[in-house]
Amino acid sequence: MSDTVTVTLPDGSEKRAARGVAILDFVREQIGAGLARAAFVARLDGELVDLSRPLERDARLEVLTAKSPEALAVARHDAAHVLASVVQRLYPGTQVTIGPAIEDGFYYDFARAQPFTPDDLERIERAVAEAIAADLPFVREEVSLEEARALFERLGETYKVEIIGDIAGRGARTLTLYRHGDWVDFCLGPHGPSTGRIGVVKLMSVAGAYWRGDARNAMLQRVYGTAFFDRKALEAHLARLEELRKRDHRKLGPALGLFAFHEVAPGSAFWLPHGTTLYNLLADAMRRLVTRNGYQEVKTPLLYDRRLWEQSGHWGVYRENMFLVLDKESDPALPVDQRLTMSLKPMNCPSHYLIYGMARRSYRELPIRYFTVDVLHRNELSGALGGLTRVRQFAQDDSHIFVMESQIPDEVERITGLMRTVYGAFGLEFSLRFSTRPTNPADRVGDDALWDKAEGALRSALDRLGLPWELNAGDGAFYGPKIDFVVTDSLGRKWQTCTIQLDYAAPERFDLSYAGDDNREHRPVVIHRAVYGSFERFIAILTEHYAGAFPAWLAPVQARVVTVSDRFEAWGQAVVERLRALGYRVEADASSDKLGAKIRAAQLAKIPYALVIGEKEVEAQGVSPRRHGGEDLKTMGLDAFVELLAREARPPY
RNA sequence: GCCGACAUAGCUCAGAUGGUAGAGCAACUGAUUCGUAAUCAGUAGGUCCCCAGUUCAAUUCUGGGUGUCGGCUCCA
């Protein structure tokens, strides 16, 4: 064996290195001292590794500095270790568990009877800063599982010992320890060179978290934090959080008169006049769109006998989430669960199956596409509720499409076209996620053969679309695999909204059929799909995406007339009436405020147009529109403005 | 549901070792008649989340409840 190895750098150049030399030494000697100082971690043949690792074989090497996002994730994991080390010093008896880097930061879960207080957090944060200032190197060591087990048993770290058991169960023979100072943890790594390289750490919050995320397990104390290589980046992150806070639909919604919540109906919104307008505009646009695409709107009952849910499978796997209703005519001596014989619908699907089954269907009718906007109820955990995004009552733009198997790819493509139309109209990017059968057989209906078929069909439809998608194994609905659309808003946040789900099980359960061209009965396949997802969630996303300043076609109030003084009220009123007569949503500011104050009020109400009316406008029988944001369009005749508004207020689909 | 924090005027927030509370904005009234992000003055507005308990006295302390917020595996 040669005593040198060949190292290929990202630019394609090759260098020879002594076998076994540490990456950092190689970089310093063969590339440059500057890069060696800036280096944080390395990527060796695609795998992130410590700079202290030796070069043992020919490999591709990439040096990552503080500029790379991967390095930041490593630094955050470093920060989690530092956090754990100071917590164990400050709070003896606290056990460590896991502490990964996550999007925007990291967390660490501690086993400790006493929760951390905000004061504790401050104290811990100071100690973390000291540990960073001490600039302790991270030292990697590989040990046998037995050694590791002995070490952590001696330290009394029962969770770590449990994890070692899992690792052993996966067939590993060794694991790696990382030390800084006198503190040790085992960890896949990699880590940065030393604590001093982490930069600045800020602890964000404390929270309870179940061990392994399972409510049957012990409650751990989770500390969330974030870390950045420099203070400016941290401040930019905090500024972004502040921007998110300002755009939060839970603040903007009530402030703009869109919706509100009341404690007597947790998880169910009250739609205020402005919000109802917005809701209806979205619903109307969707109705037009789907009608043009061959859908038929139907309305179905809200309350059903449990037999329906038993047939659909909901009673078995979804009952926890359903609102059950007591049958008052049932025998009071019976146990309560036997008297709860009705349920509010949590989904529209079974009712659409019933409609399908109400007539004999021919292959010539397919695809049959039912569309429903009905109120649905799902009993979410009280602690999981929040704003419009986690609610108990909502409505979907819900459809179930009955197709022949051969029609699946076309239909998926057609649905994707709807998604493009709608999301394009809002300037929302989306990506696709393919979710397959739930891992636990108890969480799904239908046998494996059906799942194989459904997953295969959806996958080939995906391939035909040619859009990039990622796999989300085990996250399918209980009745079928699905394609989720993940939307990215103006702040770069991702939201799961629309969905396409394939269902071979339901037609079996409901004995749905159609007469084929062979004059024999066949099973249709059901496609579940929603474009907005739920109106509630979609309006939350749009509110934050637009920061409450909706485009003219959606704005609850499209224009507000602001007069320079009340001498011009007559023409102001005439303008309001003319525009209203044409169907526009217009109001007047009749206060005795000065123009500047009225403009400010219109701006804060996020109304697309303030129509300034003074002497000039009365003479010209026109208005001077000022767009939200400040653009002054100068005086124009009322007809010219009507034309402008007509263009902008036209629904884009 | 579980862990933690929080709950004072429509909104944003002050406040008192336990002696029933204030500001700014908004609202209302009046004056002002004004040209693109705040005219001036006055008035009114409170079950200090709810229910118990302790106390001469509870918005404040204790207990229980409700709601909201941050979380509850992007698995060493």
Can you walk me through this structure?
- The protein is an alpha+beta fold.
- It folds into five domains: 4-65, Ubiquitin-like (UB roll), CATH 3.10.20; 70-243, Threonyl-trna Synthetase, Chain A, domain 2 (Threonyl-tRNA Synthetase, Chain A, domain 2, 2-Layer Sandwich), CATH 3.30.980.10; 259-301 and 346-545, BirA Bifunctional Protein, domain 2, CATH 3.30.930.10; 303-344, no CATH class; 559-649, Rossmann fold, CATH 3.40.50.800.
- It is 36% helix and 27% strand.
- The strands form eight sheets. Strands 16, 20, 21, 22, 23, 24, 25, 26 and 29 form a nine-stranded mixed sheet that branches. A five-stranded mixed sheet has the order 2-1-5-3-4, sandwiched between helices.
- A hairpin with a 5-residue loop joins β27 and β28 (521-522).
- It binds one RNA strand of 76 nucleotides through β7, α6, β12, β13 and α8.
Short overview:
The protein is α+β, with helices and mostly antiparallel strands and 653 residues long. Strand 10 (174-180) and strand 11 form a beta hairpin.
Largest sheet: 9 strands, mixed
Question: Number of DSSP helices?
Answer: 21
Low-confidence spans: none
Q: Please, what is the CATH homologous superfamily of the largest domain?
A: Bira Bifunctional Protein, Domain 2
- Stated plainly, the CATH topology of the largest domain is called BirA Bifunctional Protein, domain 2
Radius of gyration, whole Å: 31 Å
Q: Kindly name the structural category.
A: alpha+beta
CATH class of the largest domain: Alpha Beta
Assembly status = single chain
Fraction of residues in H or I helices: 25-40%
Head-to-tail CA distance between termini: 68 Å
Shape: globular
Mean pLDDT: 92
